UniProtKB/TrEMBL annotation:
Documented EC number(s): 2.1.1.228
Its job: Specifically methylates guanosine-37 in various tRNAs.
PANTHER family found in the cross-reference section: TRNA (GUANINE-N(1)-)-METHYLTRANSFERASE (PTHR46417)
Domain tRNA methyltransferase TRMD/TRM10-type intervals: 1-229
Protein name: tRNA (guanine-N(1)-)-methyltransferase
Annotated catalysed reactions: guanosine(37) in tRNA + S-adenosyl-L-methionine = N(1)-methylguanosine(37) in tRNA + S-adenosyl-L-homocysteine + H(+)
Subunit record text: Homodimer.
Pfam families found in the cross-reference section: tRNA_m1G_MT (PF01746)
GO biological process: methylation
Gene Ontology molecular function terms on file: tRNA (guanine(37)-N1)-methyltransferase activity
InterPro entries documented for this protein: Alpha/beta_knot_MTases, tRNA_m1G_MeTrfase_C_sf, tRNA_m1G_MeTrfase_TrmD, tRNA_m1G_MTases_N, tRNA_MeTrfase_TRMD/TRM10
Enzyme class: transferase
SUPFAM superfamilies: alpha/beta knot (SSF75217)
Organism: Collinsella ureilytica
């Protein structure tokens, strides 16, 4: 997969995109990442990427020409077309399901907005879709691009050392359509009076499996009851939640 990001701060991606699992995945050529400076597509003396909004109002807007020229030229630099995604609080909410969908593309181009927003014609002309990280406002789309890159890359075959580890976790379909993950423990068995549940040390795999499922259900009921509405639960599990 090729992931590209267009930004007025193209250097902010460097450390994160080269660290840990993302760094290894790049070295192993599972994906490649490139960032581009939006100012390279400005043609005035001040290299301006923003301007005042028509109709008045506070703040500055990102101009349409640099974004459209940049996206077109980045697109044309390779034969494979990129899915062009703009980050804005007005986009589709990001989720594990969205990450799974995006992992199916061979090339993603992320457009990171700054200032108070982007001239609407940039969306009309070059956006395939818009994504929001959530109902809050960031100072720009760069963090959103890194969050989405991270969530997508770890789903690519070979990106995680252990192929199983992205299957069982919170929100994945294998936990019955998105329950929270069960609690996990490692050594020591006892720390400051807090014990690892006995069942996990019992070696009884059927009991462990049931405990984990029940723990997932309890945690979901406590922290994210909204998820239970869409979960596919058995009669026994529904009865368990009633208790
Ligand atoms: N840019 C500013 N706020 C954002 C958000 N919540 N999600 C995605 N991009 C953004």
């Amino acid at each position: 997969m090729i992931i590209e990001a267009l930004s007025v701060f193209p250097d902010v991606f460097d450390a994160y995109m080269h660290a840990s699992i993302l760094g290894r995945a790049q070295r192993e050529e599972i994906f490649e990442f490139h960032s581009y400076d939006l100012r390279d597509w400005t043609y005035d003396r001040h290299r301006s990427v923003d301007d005042e909004p028509y109709g008045g109002g506070a703040g500055m807007l990102m101009k349409v020409e640099p974004i459209v020229h940049a996206v077109e030229s980045i697109q044309q630099a390779r034969s494979m077309p990129a899915r062009t995604i703009f980050f804005t609080p007005a986009g589709t909410p990001f989720s594990q399901r969205e990450a799974e969908r995006l992992a199916g593309y061979e090339r993603l181009l992320f457009v990171c907005g700054r200032y108070e927003g982007i001239d609407e014609r940039a969306f009309e002309l070059v956006a395939d879709e818009c994504i929001s990280l959530g109902d809050y406002v960031l100072t720009g789309g760069e963090l959103a691009a890194m969050v989405v890159s991270d969530a997508v890359v770890r789903l690519l075959p070979g990106a995680l050392g252990d192929a199983q580890s992205s299957l069982d976790e919170s929100f994945s379909a294998s936990l019955s359509h998105g329950l929270l993950e069960y609690a996990q423990y490692t050594r020591p068995a006892s720390f400051r009076g807090h014990e690892v549940p006995e069942v996990l040390r019992s070696g009884d795999h059927a009991r462990i499996k049931r405990w984990r499922r029940e723990n997932s259900l309890e945690r979901t009921l406590r922290f994210r009851p909204d998820l239970l509405e869409c979960a596919h639960l058995s009669h026994e599990e529904l009865a368990f939640l009633e208790t």
